[in-house]
Amino acid sequence: MATPIASPACRADAGPAPANPGGGAAGLEPGSPAMPRRWRRAVGLSFLLLLLLAGAPGCRGAERLWEGADEPGPAWGWPGLQRVREQLRAAGALSRRYWALLSCQVWPDDCEADGEAAAGRLGQTLIQLGQRSLDALTTWYCSFRDCCNGGDCRISNDFSGLDSDLSVRLHGQHLARELVFRTVRGYLEMPQPDKALALSFHGWSGTGKNFVARMVAENLYRDGLKSDCVKVFITTIHFPHSKYVDLYKELLTDQIKQVQQRCHQSLFIFDEAEKLHPELLELLGPHLERQALEGHRTKSPRAIFLFLSNLGGNVINKVVLNLLKAGWAREEISMEHLQAHLQAEIKESTESGFGHSRLVKDNLIDFFVPFLPLEYRHVRLCARDAFQSQELLYTEETLDEVAKMMTYVPKEEKLFSSQGCKSVSQRINYFLP
Q1: Rounded to whole angstroms, what are the CA distances from 57 to 45, 87, 94, 98, 321?
Q2: How far, in Å, CA of 99 to CA of 429, rounded?
Q3: Residue 155: closest CA among 259, 252, 51
Q4: Which of these, 196, 218, 376, lies nearest to 289 by C-alpha position?
Q5: Is the dihedral of CA 11, 14, 17, 19 positive or negative?
Q6: What digits encode the pLDDT tens for the residues 211-240?
Q7: Fewest CB atoms within 10 Å of the CB: 17, 44, 151, 221?
Q8: Per-residue pLDDT tens for 149-201?
Q9: Are 259 and 228 in contact (CB under 8 A)?
Q10: How far is residue 356's CA from residue 313's CA, in Å, rounded to a whole number?
């Protein structure tokens, strides 16, 4: 039986390949002193391809070349393609030295003086082949997903999408729709903003505060709330115990700093903001203050802070109810009707430290955004959206039945839904076949 021949590439002291006494594969004559040149080149090329796929000396595995290609987000993203391009170029540069080293170490008798030049030509050919393959892959990828040609590809800033979502998907909130779209777009299109944009959403639960915050994230960032440029804090979950406030202050500072260093445009959402500890509210002050611009830089870092709170919901409802009773149409209600009442309620509240913080006292909040109480007709629209989102059939009678299941206040008029649209999606389960 023929004795197996050890691969020359696996032996550090490998010299000329030994004879194959037992006969062998086609192209190798029995007893030949060395492997023919074309076979050596074929073996060397195969080995070089493995090295290229490894991506770096040490052969840490082909997966190293694709490391991070699916980051950020669950789907393979455009930044991943860019990273592959960079690593492929680096691998091409290394291929020259790899080939020259292999040629001289594995087959020293065939180590030519111009081996480096030949290696360079081969490496260039391989990198061109890889580049063509990557270009084809890029073309295919961009055929079904938008690609980014520059800047931070995590950021999309789809203002037309935001306008459409606020107009079509948000019901009964003409004030919030106009104010949020106008301020967010104006801030992000400003050449050199000197402070962060701070918006404070106020209203009853279920009126759409979280819904709007999610729309903002989805239209400004490719991965929405999952983007590494977006950070969501829920007070009762992230900062539940006042005795750990010092730890929370340290963690909050670090997380804001990390996001702002990672992204030139960041979004921070604080849900249940009225429950934030006073020391955490004070900690946020410097992040919302005006900053001195550094020279004539073309791009200023941008940050948007959204504070979501039920604080002020009662006074909003009271003002709206009085206006409706006085004959005003809902769509005629303006910010002038609500702004002074809302800010007074926030500042005078004894149940929260939000109104007594420097965020409010020093006017660091740019706009207080009122969310109006939802009426029966808005609840019907929410029910329709819930059926459509689950691709379920419905009738107008079904929408009425869902809307009637909600509780309405005040007791006499029964005009406003006490829960807004928050629990509508659970109500449609009663009508599933």
Answers
A1: 17, 13, 9, 9, 72
A2: 66
A3: 259
A4: 196
A5: negative
A6: 999 999 999 999 999 999 999 999 999 999
A7: 151
A8: 556 789 999 999 999 999 999 999 999 999 999 999 999 999 999 999 999 99
A9: yes
A10: 18
CA 74 to chain centre: 10
Q: How many residues does the chain have?
A: 433
Q: What is the pTM of this model?
A: 0.68
Instruction: Say if CB 269 and CB 217 are below 8 A apart.
Output: yes
Q: Per the structure block, which two tokens stand in for 231?
A: 């950070």
Q: How far apart are CA 138 and CA 134, in angstroms?
A: 6
Task: Please state, in angstroms and rounded to a whole number, the distance separating the CA atoms of residues 279 and 242.
Answer: 10
